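Reviewers of the previous submission asked for a worked example of the structure-prediction workflow described in the proposal, so we include one complete record here. The input consisted solely of the amino acid sequence. No template or homolog information was supplied to the procedure at any stage.
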Amino acid sequence: MTQKKPGVDLFPRPKRRIGLKRILVHIWIFAVLGALVLGGGIYGRAKLDQRALTYKQDSRINALHQQGMAAIQQIMAEAAQDEGAQGAINQGATTKRRGLKNTITAMVHDGAEDAAILAAVSDTLISAVETRLSPEDVERVREAVAAHAQEAGLEVSKALQQNIESLTLSQIRKDLPVTTPNYPVIYYSTALIIAGLVLLLLAGVLAFIWLRFDEDGKVKVAEFLEPMDYLLPFFVGVLIFTLYPIVRVVIMSFQERYKLDGSFAGWGMGNYQYVLQGIPGTSNYFLQGLGNTILYVLYTVPASTVLAVIIAYLLNQKLRFSALFQTAYFLPMVTSVTAVGLVWRWIFNHNFGVLNALIVLFGGQPVNWLQVAGNSMSVLVIFGIWNILPFTIILLLSGLQNIDETYYTVARVDGAKSLRIFRRITVPLLAPTIGLVLIINSISAFKVFTEVTVLFNGNPGPAYNMYTVVYYIYEMMHQRLELGRAAAAAIVLFLFIFAFTMLQRFIQRKWNYT
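From that input alone, the workflow returned the following structure tokens.
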């Protein structure tokens, strides 16, 4: 038996080989970018050091002008021993204050010592009171100033040391106005230096590989670099906009009394203690918000899921006008929650609302939905269910359309009723999608915020009874400017969402679909 020869490929496709020039291109790119970034970081650091030197000079000038003048003026006043003479000394010092500031500034820039500057300040103040005091008082003042000049110098040195200790590079960087030329380069100078060194290090590593590796080794490195080139933008975006904010919030939650300028009182668990315990004797709005949030999740998520399953099942039956109903149910997906919330406020209006009009039509009494605290949760849940339904229906409808029609055909042949088919076939096969919907909607419901602010005109309920966790975080962050406490509340919310999600996944594993 002869073996069949394989056919000849008339148009052979050449085997793709990763170009080794990719390594050279990366070396060049990393080297150039690293040099530029490192140069920018060094330039920014030099500007920051220059600004620090300017701040220190200004601090020295202020110390010599304020503390130096005050110390010498006090010595002169004590030496005068006369209320009239003391008043004359104060008046004379006031007339020379602005001129002394210019003199001190000029002497500091010329490199004069503190002792020489204080001597000039003393001579100026004494000359200012010579015509206001008797010759005996002037001589007594002159002798007192000469005898206690060292004490005045110590006062200035102490004040200057305190000012310089507070002028760290980090503090100067935080105090930079955003209108400063080259502000980003100066503010992020340290990060730029580190990034530049990393890029240059990568260029050096690739250059070493190019010089010392054989061709097969270079090919492997080039094959590794190719997918990294495509994934790098994604990695950079995740690092900057996802990982860094998460890490920063965790760090901030342990910085007590953290402020916008980056200052904080110290490290510790004080933020978590305040969030969980509050102020003794007052209402703990975080725990109130947590309770309201959990109730909202328990009311909204199951109800919206059940309604969505029913609606999606009906929309999947190819009924007449199904396209019209799909459009109607999906409208909330393309409308603003804020705009729709304002419409719902009119629906819930006590005097003109559509809902109360329907209640009255069927013989009921109007309900004050928005102004009575007892109705607040009902209002929020109704609006929440309506808001969640479209996305839930889309997911469940997608799950229904992926179910093989063979199951339904076999069930109908066996004589199964529609309800039994729904309970025994549709729901079990749709269970993974239902589980996904429950997790997604639970996470979304835990973060309820916009619904509260829109329905209750920016307040957490008519009697401040509808605090939610996210509203608490918003209030701490934007109104009280307690960023550390807001971060701690966000971490606690994350832990609750994580635990609730894990509980749902555990229940789904135990769910018997058959």
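The longest helix spans residues 21-80. We consider this example representative of the routine output the project will generate in years two and three.
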